[in-house]
TrEMBL record, chain A:
<feature type="binding site">
    <location>
        <position position="31"/>
    </location>
    <ligand>
        <name>substrate</name>
    </ligand>
</feature>
<feature type="binding site">
    <location>
        <position position="99"/>
    </location>
    <ligand>
        <name>substrate</name>
    </ligand>
</feature>
<dbReference type="GO" id="GO:0006525">
    <property type="term" value="P:arginine metabolic process"/>
</dbReference>
<keyword id="KW-0378">Hydrolase</keyword>
<dbReference type="InterPro" id="IPR033199">
    <property type="entry name" value="DDAH-like"/>
</dbReference>
<dbReference type="Pfam" id="PF02274">
    <property type="entry name" value="ADI"/>
</dbReference>
<dbReference type="GO" id="GO:0045429">
    <property type="term" value="P:positive regulation of nitric oxide biosynthetic process"/>
</dbReference>
<dbReference type="GO" id="GO:0000052">
    <property type="term" value="P:citrulline metabolic process"/>
</dbReference>
<feature type="active site" description="Nucleophile">
    <location>
        <position position="275"/>
    </location>
</feature>
<feature type="binding site">
    <location>
        <position position="74"/>
    </location>
    <ligand>
        <name>substrate</name>
    </ligand>
</feature>
<dbReference type="GO" id="GO:0016597">
    <property type="term" value="F:amino acid binding"/>
</dbReference>
<feature type="binding site">
    <location>
        <begin position="79"/>
        <end position="80"/>
    </location>
    <ligand>
        <name>substrate</name>
    </ligand>
</feature>
<dbReference type="GO" id="GO:0005739">
    <property type="term" value="C:mitochondrion"/>
</dbReference>
<feature type="active site" description="Proton donor">
    <location>
        <position position="174"/>
    </location>
</feature>
<dbReference type="GO" id="GO:0016403">
    <property type="term" value="F:dimethylargininase activity"/>
</dbReference>
<feature type="binding site">
    <location>
        <position position="269"/>
    </location>
    <ligand>
        <name>substrate</name>
    </ligand>
</feature>
<protein>
    <submittedName>
        <fullName>Dimethylarginine dimethylaminohydrolase 1</fullName>
    </submittedName>
</protein>
Length: 286, 1023
């Protein structure tokens, strides 16, 4: 059954993934917080293909790939436009105006999955999915440049079963720029001061005690956890070539099936591993 | 409570009161009290009388009184007849129906009071006649002496005149009131004959049960909450009852938990007695409940919570929970029986849609085979995961005036803004919970890098709400975190604030107890929730009750207040009798009376005081009582500001007088409050013409009283604020007080020890009321619990009602109005001062600290011993609180704690403060003595911590006395925190602090200096 009955055992369960191809406009026009080297589109594509390949081939998910839209340079980062929890999907109103149209395609695909869809229509609300950390027990929402209080409230209204706590995010783009779930009760967290502070905040806000996995690099703390029936705990994490020290930390997770994935190009435009997919657990029987 | 009951009491009272009426003031009340007491005592005997028609009953009470009281009192009965006759004749004019009586009876009181000038007069005359007899009575019971009489006499005469004139003076107001009451009583009596005698003793209670049915029973009017609760649980066949409680509604929305340990009538202020049986503590893991029946009731509660929207859930969860409800109540889905719309009769959600019902039906089918008990368990397993499960929400505002919700739950306190959780304070992190007026404070353990506890304040809609929240917190903490409930703080010298503690079993205890349950699973019928759900219609249970209540109150108006008061008066009797049986009774009585008369505490306390035998005070106090009411009304809201104001005044001139005041026998807490009146004259010498013995002075004195009272509060305020319990020092009491502390301890040892005991009861009297403005609760320091102090208070709500009347009358009186003006003015000033409070305080603190330093050195030893022996924290205001006007001033000393605003600064809970800091620690140690600091384990003889604060520095002095191998060693650890911007020269401040420390303790050597520097870095905000 859906809902709370799933409990923790179901955390990370996933049957479908929504992804979106990269537009070439990404290289030059994608939003980025810091100027830097230009994105190597070819390489970015290879990395993306590997990512999708793992989800589809290795993990057996049904991957729904939306076509790229050149007018939406950031459209590959699908995570930001929808928050899906159990049977309900919240279509967000991204903080960056240039990204708001990304929602449309996402809406169509989610509708095709028969999810309960909630749209964020309040014009005062902004919410990027990258600021939403769902732990299986509750939500943490980063209040960042992209996400505001109102957006968080709407999230709370949408997912009424869960506590929604707000976490100030100052130094990075999103809350999940430095953290993510690495297991049912495990928060991967970066080592930066901002990350640690945010973690403290989350710990204070929660009735529950999470384990934490501290990795040296903030960017590496963003990983993708999945619970695949045939494979158990699966963790997509940043490749050792990129973050060797952090990779070593991940490698200590003995119970996890570890899949290193490079994300060097999209990282240039603030992309991280979770950004590139919306994971959906579609209960088959109902 | 039932009017009828009240009426009888009143009657008795009244008969005796006649005398008292003359004396308008406290003395009166005091006198009443004895009468009441008698009546109470008589009550057993009266049971027989109960069958007798009213007239008889009237006489009977009095006669009984006689028996008990004295031969003298017999005279009273003789007087009664004429009196009664008059009354009756009057009464006849107003026909009353039985049913109406309750409501109307009270109304009548009001009406009559106005219209009955004449009857009153007659009454009063009669009263005069009787006066002598009564006076005797009084004397017997209360120690009131001849001295009291004069004042009374004056009062009477005045009253009579007044009646004739129909003009009312402040002083007389009270009298009038009393008179009214008497009349009311008469009327009631008339009615009584019609009523069944039984009603006199019992009150009917209605309890709305979770399954939507109603349980009613008759309770003795003085029954405690526990009696009713037990009855209900018995009715429900419920053994694991500690998770449940009885709610009653105050006004419309405010729900209050009935305190089992207190009498119902002292908690619920209006008739009828309607309660709802509810879950009070939501078990975090319902599967650990022992019996299915308990789970069933929990389910019923949750269904209500969900259907009403109090417990939000998602669509999916609504559907799922609904399907379990169906399974539990209907059993397996039967396609034949359960047609398409069978579901729509149930309500699963506030906004139930067709889609949801379909989903529910769909899920229902999947539960085939689950027994009702299993379905309930599944229901609970899902419901308990809801984030708002078991969260008791309270509206509040944060320091910036932003609307937030405070949610109390098993784990702690949650802060919500809209639906977002913006902060959370787990119980282990909370060091102290307190409320002051409408402010609610929590003191939280310092975070990792912080050194000091921070206090976070929230503004509740009103002080009752603040107290309610505080109580809920205390109860939840106790229930879920403690193994056994704490004992309520004992009546202590200078103990202020609510003594409320959770008195039931804790979760641990109830689990233990339920392990012992050895009975076959009780059969119970699961009522279909159709009815319940529908009747709820989204509204919480008890709404209908509320409307009833409202109607009632509308009808009864203030009358209700009167009645209650009367009943309370009975309580007073106890006091008078000298039976200070419990802390509670004294307290409550005064308060209730306040409600009635609109008197200030001082008055009540005054009464209390009389018990010990201070008769002289009577004279002065009564006057005050008369004048006060109106002022009180007005000042209620402003008191807090006044407090601050008075704070300032302390600095200015207070200290002088106090010091000068000769320490007389300490009056105890009672004195403290009572004292409010006395100090006035002295302090405001400029305004006051002299001791307020004369009638003419009465008004003035009353005015002063007000001020003083406020001052007193201030002192407490300070104390409360500064009180710091340092969890880290286990077992050590760290009292953060300012310089005043030394003094206070000293005083205590000198004077109070002897006199206090007797007074303590009276002091306690202040604590019981429902309206204490202050309460503290230290979740982690059970040993130090006594620290809880409180300030008792007038009741705002009830009082206001009463006061409205008074005030109106008062306004007619020129004198009164004059008096008011200054008061108001003062208060306004106070408000202004509030903002500047910090500065003022700081200045004053210096002065105090000077003294203290000296004292500190000298008294250190003594202090420590004291403290050690007595874990409890004793506060004494530096300012003498009590002065007897008619005698050489009795000065009671208390500690005046002055804290600046920094401690109270409210931290915005909007977001978690993230401050970048840089810290460095430098330690200088002298090699010589340091060895001691290390592993040596001596025997800790005493530990004490004193904290003083000024604007930029906080000095915490921690004194420990150890005995090692027969050698005692005293270590003084000073922690000086210098806060401020760059413009403060920290080094200089540090040097100064070290220097001061050396000067302070010339005989000691500095062994270690640790400098811990924490610098806040500029926050990087890219926005």
């Amino acid at each position: 059954m859906a809902g709370l009955s799933g409990g923790l055992a179901a955390f990370g369960r996933c049957t479908h993934a929504v992804v979106r191809a990269l537009p070439e406009s990404l290289c030059r026009q994608a939003l980025r917080s810091t100027a830097g080297p230009e994105v190597d589109f070819a390489r970015a594509e290879r990395e993306y293909q590997l990512y999708v390949g793992v989800l589809r081939g290795k993990l057996g998910l049904q991957v729904l790939e939306l076509p790229a839209d050149e007018s939406l340079p950031d459209c590959v980062f699908v995570e930001d436009v929808a928050v899906v929890c159990e049977e309900t999907a919240l279509l967000t109103r991204p903080g960056a105006p240039s990204r708001r149209k990304e929602v449309e395609a996402m809406k169509r695909v989610l509708e095709s999955l028969n999810l309960n869809i909630v749209e964020m229509v309040d014009e005062n609300a902004t919410l990027d999915g990258g600021d939403v950390l769902f732990t299986g027990r509750e939500f943490f929402v980063g209040l960042s440049k992209r996400t505001n209080q109102r957006g968080a409230e709407i999230l709370a209204d949408t997912f009424k079963d869960y506590a929604v706590s707000t976490v100030p995010v100052h130094d990075s783009l999103h809350l999940k720029s430095f953290c993510s779930m690495a297991g049912p009760n495990l928060i991967a967290i970066g080592s930066s001061e901002a990350a640690q502070k945010a973690l403290k905040t989350m710990q204070q806000m929660s009735d529950h005690r999470y384990d934490k996995l501290t990795v040296p690099d903030d960017a590496a703390a963003n990983c993708v956890y999945l619970n695949i029936p045939s494979k158990g705990h699966v963790l997509l994490h940043r490749a050792p070539e990129e973050y060797p020290e952090s990779a070593k930390v991940f490698e200590k997770l003995k119970d996890h099936m570890l899949i290193p994935i490079a994300n060097t190009e999209l990282e240039k435009v603030d992309g991280s591993l979770t950004c590139c997919s919306v994971l959906i657990n579609k209960a088959s029987e109902l | 409570m039932t009017t009828e009951v009240g009426s009888e009491t009143e009657v008795k009272k009244d008969s005796e009161q006649l005398g008292p009426d003359k004396a308008k003031d406290k003395p009166e009340e005091a006198s009443e009290t004895p009468g009441d007491q008698k009546s109470r005592e008589a009550s057993p005997g009266e049971a027989q009388d109960s069958s007798v028609p009213a007239p008889t009953s009237q006489s009977s009470p009095s006669s009984q009184k006689k028996e008990k009281s004295s031969p003298e009192s017999k005279g009273i009965s003789r007087f009664l007849p004429p009196w009664l006759k008059k009354q009756k004749s009057y009464t006849l004019a107003e026909p009353k129906d039985e049913p109406k009586k309750r409501a109307t009876g009270e109304e009548q009181v009001v009406e009559e009071s106005e219209s009955q000038a004449q009857p009153r007069k007659s009454l009063e005359e009669a009263a005069e006649n009787q006066e002598n007899a009564k006076a005797d009575d009084k004397e017997k019971h209360s120690i009131s002496s001849a001295e009291i009489q004069p004042s009374k006499e004056d009062g009477k005469e005045t009253e009579v005149e007044e009646v004739a004139e129909k003009k009312e003076e402040k002083q007389e107001e009270k009298e009038n009131r009393e008179t009214k009451e008497v009349q009311t009583a008469e009327i009631k009596i008339d009615n009584v004959p019609q009523k069944s005698p039984k009603k006199i003793k019992t009150v009917q209670c209605k309890v709305m049960l979770l399954d939507g049915t109603e349980y009613s029973c008759d309770l003795e009017k003085r029954a405690k909450g526990q009696v009713l609760f037990d009855k209900v649980c018995e009715h429900l066949n419920l053994l694991e009852k500690d998770y449940f409680g009885l709610l009653f509604y105050e006004n419309s929305e405010q729900k209050n938990w009935l305190d089992s340990s207190k009498e119902i009538k002292r908690q619920i202020r209006s008739l009828p007695w309607i309660f709802t049986f509810n879950v009070k503590f939501y078990p975090p893991d319902p599967s650990q409940l022992t019996e299915d029946i308990t789970r069933y009731f929990l389910c019923l509660q949750l269904r209500q919570d969900i259907a009403s929207g109090r417990l939000p859930c998602s669509f999916v969860t609504h559907a799922l929970l609904g399907s379990y409800t169906l399974q539990a109540e209907l059993g397996d889905h039967d396609p034949e029986e359960h047609r398409s719309d069978y579901i729509s009769e149930f309500q699963f959600a506030p906004n139930q849609t067709q889609e949801m019902e379909e989903k529910v039906a769909e899920l229902h089918k999947t539960h085939r085979g689950l027994t009702p008990a299993q379905a309930d368990s599944q229901f609970l397993e899902n419901a308990k995961r809801l984030s708002m499960y078991g969260v008791d929400l309270h509206h509040a505002k944060d320091s910036e005036g932003v609307d937030i919700m405070l949610g109390v739950c098993a784990n702690g306190l949650l802060i919500y803004k809209d639906r977002l959780r913006i902060n959370r304070f787990a119980w282990p992190k909370i060091l102290k919970i307190s409320y002051k007026r409408s402010n609610f404070y929590i003191k939280v353990r310092p975070a990792e890098l912080e050194q000091f506890e921070s206090t976070i304040g929230f503004k509740l809609p009103n002080h009752r709400a603040a107290k309610r929240l505080w109580k809920v917190c205390v109860e939840h903490h106790t229930f879920f975190r403690l193994v056994s409930p704490e004992q309520p703080p004992k009546a202590k010298f200078l103990t202020l604030g609510s003594k409320f503690r959770y008195s039931g079993r804790t979760q641990a205890q109830t689990r233990q107890a339920s392990n012992l349950i050895d009975r076959p699973a009780p059969y119970f019928e699961r009522t279909s929730s159709k009815r319940v759900s529908r009747s709820l219609d989204g509204a919480p249970m008890g709404v209908s009750d509320q409307s009833l209540l409202r109607d009632f109150s509308a009808a009864g108006g203030r009358a209700a207040g009167d009645k209650i008061i009367d009943l309370e008066a009975t309580g007073q009797d106890k006091l008078k009798e000298g039976g200070r049986e419990e802390d509670e009774s004294p307290l409550k009585t005064p308060q209730l009376e306040l409600t009635q008369d609109g008197k200030k505490k001082g008055d009540h306390i005054f009464q209390v005081k009389t018990l010990p035998g201070k008769e002289k005070q009577w004279i002065a106090m009564p006057r005050i009582a008369g004048a006060k009411p109106e002022e009180t009304d007005k000042s209620l809201e402003e008191e807090i500001t006044s407090i601050l104001f008075s704070k300032e005044r302390f600095g200015a001139g207070t200290s002088g007088p106090f010091a000068a005041a000769s320490p007389g026998p300490a009056e105890g807490a009672a004195g403290e409050q009572t004292g409010a009146a006395a100090p006035g004259p002295q302090r405001h010498a400029s305004r006051t013409e002299g001791p307020c013995t004369g009638v003419s002075d009465a008004d003035k004195s009353s005015h002063e009283t007000l001020d003083i009272v406020e001052e007193k509060k201030q002192a407490e305020f300070g104390i409360e604020e500064t009180l710091v319990v340092d969890e880290t020092n286990k077992g050590k009491m760290q009292v953060a007080t300012d310089a005043g502390e030394t003094c206070k301890v000293e005083h205590v040892s000198k004077k109070d020890s002897s006199s206090l005991p007797s007074d303590s009861s009276s002091s306690s009297s202040s604590s019981e009321s429902e309206d204490e403005e202050v309460g503290e609760y230290l979740p982690h320091h059970r040993a130090i619990e006594e620290v809880i102090r409180e300030e008792q208070e007038e009741e705002e709500d009830m009082k206001r009602k009463e006061h409205e009347e008074n005030t109106q009358r008062v306004e007619a009186i020129p004198e009164g109005s004059k008096l008011n003006v200054p008061v108001e003015h003062t208060q306004v000033t106070a408000e202004d001062l509030v903002q500047e409070n910090t500065v003022t305080v700081a200045a004053e603190e210096k002065n105090l600290s000077e003294q203290i330093k000296q004292d500190l050195g000298e008294e250190k030893e003594e202090e420590q011993l004291k403290l050690n022996g007595d874990v409890s924290h004793v506060d004494i205001d530096v300012a003498p609180q009590l002065i007897c006007c008619s005698e050489p001033p009795v000065v009671k000393t208390e500690m005046v704690t002055i804290s600046d605003a920094t401690q109270r600064t409210e931290i915005s809970t909007k977001e978690i403060p993230i401050v970048q800091t840089e810290t460095k620690t430098i330690t200088y140690e002298s090699s010589q003595l340091d060895g001691n600091a290390g592993g040596d384990t001596g025997v800790l003889v005493s530990a004490q911590t004193i904290t003083s604060e000024s604007i930029s520095t906080t000095t915490t002095t921690h004194i420990t006395k150890m005995v090692k191998g027969g050698v005692s060693e005293t270590r003084i650890e000073k922690r000086i925190v210098i806060t401020g911007d760059a413009d403060i020269d920290h080094d200089e401040a540090l040097a100064q602090a070290i220097k001061e420390a050396k000067e302070q303790h010339p005989d000691m050597s500095v062994t270690r200096v640790v400098v811990h520097k924490e610098t806040e870095l500029a926050e990087e905000d890219e926005d």
